[in-house]
Design a protein that fits this description.
- With 187 residues, this protein is α+β, with helices and mostly antiparallel strands.
- The chain is 38% helix and 16% strand.
- A 4-stranded antiparallel beta sheet has the order 1-2-4-3.
- Helix 2 runs antiparallel to helix 5.
- The longest helix has 19 residues.
- The model has no long low-confidence stretch (mean pLDDT 94).
């Protein structure tokens, strides 16, 4: 099997991080993989923000849990609480992908997905565990949104697209089993 396909097949969603932060060289390589992503009309409407500040990550997690706790539907809140009450699973580092607010709806999500996948596969290839984290956006859904954008140096006109938690796993999980019924060939 070719090396890229092997890495894709080995990637798992880590929900049990230890406290070790990946080295600067690894984080730079992961971020570089993200910004090498193609984008519609080469607009590159993203900003990759690598957060190693544990206090800031903790503040974002606290705000996210507050937002979840206030939702009428408590199912997501209850699920996170059943997993230890940690939105970010003690990940020592988070990579946020900020995206332009004024993109044609849909285009920014395609570009965001490509950037995120590049970084997740790059991280896995470098031995760094990772998890896509849509919950990162919760920190930007309440009264502290402007404060977080300022602390994270969001460019003007950008919003939170997605977070990727990165670090080293305490527990190695088995990747999900692909369902071959999800592929249809038309001749």
């Amino acid at each position: 099997m070719n090396e890229v396909l092997k890495v894709i097949s080995e990637r798992f969603s880590c929900r049990d991080f230890n406290e070790q932060i990946p080295g600067q060289e690894l984080l730079e390589a992961i971020a570089q993989a993200g910004i090498q992503a193609p984008s519609g009309m080469n607009r590159q409407g993203w900003q990759v923000i690598v957060i190693k500040n544990r206090d800031l990550i903790s503040d974002m997690e606290t705000e996210g849990m507050k937002i979840l706790s206030l939702m009428e539907d408590k199912s997501m809140y209850d699920r996170i609480m059943s997993r230890g009450g940690k939105l970010f699973y003690d990940a020592p580092c988070m990579i946020l992908i900020a995206i332009k607010e004024d993109y044609h709806k849909g285009a920014e999500l395609i570009d965001l997905g490509i950037v995120a996948q590049n970084m997740a596969i790059a991280a896995t290839s470098l031995g760094v565990a990772n998890l896509y984290c849509g919950f990162a956006g919760l920190a930007f859904a309440g009264s502290k949104a402007s404060e977080f954008k300022e602390k994270l140096k969001f460019p003007e006109g950008y919003e939170c697209g997605l977070g990727i938690l990165v670090g080293y796993a305490n527990t190695i999980a088995v990747p999900h089993l692909p369902n071959p019924d999800k592929v249809t060939f038309i001749n």
